[in-house]
Amino acid sequence: MRYGLMSNVRRSWSLKGERTVVGNQQEFANRYLYTAIDPINGESFHLMGFDDAATLQTHAFLGALQKQFPDDHIIVVWDRAPFHKPKSLQRTNMTLISLPSYSPYLNPVERFFGEMV
Q1: Beta carbons of 64 and 43 less than 8 angstroms apart
Q2: Cα atoms in the Cβ-side hemisphere of radius 13 Å centred on 2
Q3: What value does the mean pLDDT of the chain take?
Q4: Which one of 61, 72, 110, 117 counts the least CB within 10 Å of its CB?
Q5: What is the DSSP letter of 17?
Q6: CB neighbours (10 Å) of residue 90?
Q7: pLDDT mean over 5-13
Q8: How far is the first Cα of the chain from the last one, in angstroms, to the nearest whole number?
Q9: Per-domain residue ranges for the chain?
Q10: 100: left (phi over 0), alpha (psi -120 to 50) or beta
Q11: Which element (helix H / strand E) includes 115?
């Protein structure tokens, strides 16, 4: 998931005849969050702060996920993002399942943060 800062323009009150000065963010800064959720018990694992979402960062996430759950066989269900496709991501004790194209509602992670709000 990508998250970041965006400009925020608002109306404000000021004295008659004076110009209002309001601080404004005029740039974008994005970071990426990797999340895995157990759909049975709701346990979650997050790795955040990446500047990019690419195969290198996906390797780091899968490695950290395996370290967190070393005795479990992990099944990862994810979309067909370009950085999810390389065969080099295959690992022991982990099954990677790609969802059909255009099927975000099949992936529980897609709804996780909407439920938190």
Answers
A1: no
A2: 9
A3: 81
A4: 117
A5: T
A6: 10
A7: 64
A8: 16
A9: 2-116
A10: beta
A11: helix 109-116
Q: Are 101 and 80 in contact (CB under 8 A)?
A: yes
Alpha-carbon span 29 to 109, nearest angstrom: 23
Find out whether 91 and 66 touch, Cβ atoms under 8 Å.
yes
Tell whether the torsion through CA atoms of 68, 46, 29 and 51 is positive or negative.
positive
Diameter of the chain measured on Cα atoms: 70
Residue pair 62/91 in contact (Cβ under 8 Å)? The answer is yes
103 has a pLDDT exceeding 70? yes
Question: How many residues make up the chain in this entry?
Answer: 117
Q: How far apart (Å, rounded) are the C-alpha atoms in residues 76 and 89?
A: 11
pTM, to two decimals: 0.70
β-pair partners for 76: 96
Fold of 2-116: Nucleotidyltransferase; domain 5 (3.30.420)
